Amino acid sequence: MSRLLSRLFAFSLVAVASLLATAPAYSQSPGVRARSGPDDAAGSIELVDPEVLRVCADPSNLPFSNRAGEGFENRLAELLAKKLGKGLAYSYYPGATGFIRNTLNAHLCDVVMGMPQGDDLVQPTNPYYRTSYAAVYRAGSDLEGLSSLADPRLANGRRIGLVANTPPGNLLARYRLLAAVKPYPLVVDTRVDAPAADMIRDLANKEIDVAILWGPIAGYHVKQSGGRLKLVLLTEDKGARMSYRIAMGVRHSDQEWKRALNRFIAQNQNEIDRLLADFGVPLTDEADAPITPTPITPAPIAPTP
User: Fold this and answer.
1) Does the domain made of 41-129+244-278 have the CATH classification 3.40.190.10?
2) How do the domains of the chain map onto residue ranges?
3) Do 41-129+244-278 and 132-233 come out as alike in CATH topology?
4) pTM across the whole model
5) For the segment 81-129, what is each residue's pLDDT rounded down to a tens digit?
6) What is the second-level CATH architecture of the domain 132-233?
7) Angle CA(176)–CA(179)–CA(182) in degrees, nearest 5?
8) Between the CA of residue 212 and those of 66, 129, 167, what are the distances in Å?
9) Strands 160-163, 210-214: pairing kind
10) Coil/strand/helix, residue 210
11) For residue 257, how many other CB atoms are within 10 A of its CB?
């Protein structure tokens, strides 16, 4: 998901596999299921509750999701619920081992809003964005113009923040920079620890010179910095996969529901892009070129008679 980085990247997903936390206003027992049409996911037997979009989410994992609904996956879920004419509810569980088993596969919810395409824990929809790992540095520092981890300036006594056991570590090993790494933990309880925030704080305090983070996390903190930080996507570096497509995830049996979500993505892609861009998520196409969402053109105001 953006998460379970046993599933690739989002290190702030955690190893708290014991507590099942749910939104207090909603029951987690499966609802009544009824089909209203052969291709109508709103009334499908595949869904926990045909009247409510039930989302599987981490309760403390910004910029992706939290209980207060402040993450971009929360906002995407709101858009999806609105377009489908459904209510919205969550089943919360820390994004660690057991997340899918104890939420989606337990029929407590019907969709995970962010999963890397190719993760066989779920059936993915079509991807709705693509991005990569990024390097973040202080604006105005002597690392201005950084475009690759192969930059010789990084071999000159720099300190590099890296989440342990994430893919950019392979590049740092290739460039013989592991001795310069300050590691941050991959496995944490996000309710009490925030390695990304710690890394960004260390960068601001000049304890490290570069922070290497998954793109949505990097972009979020750069946007929050008010111009004090910059990022570069690590798309020029070869020798390790840095870019991934992100989809929604549903149960392997849920074919109608997957088709409904694919229609939503296709019909609302530009609105989705704008939503992601609002959170600083750096978007790329298949050639690693940046994607700039098309702005909304305001409707002309009719003249007063």
Assistant:
1) yes
2) 41-129+244-278, 132-233
3) yes
4) 0.84
5) 999 999 999 999 987 778 999 999 999 999 999 999 988 999 999 999 9
6) 3-Layer(aba) Sandwich (3.40)
7) 125
8) 23, 20, 10
9) parallel
10) strand
11) 21
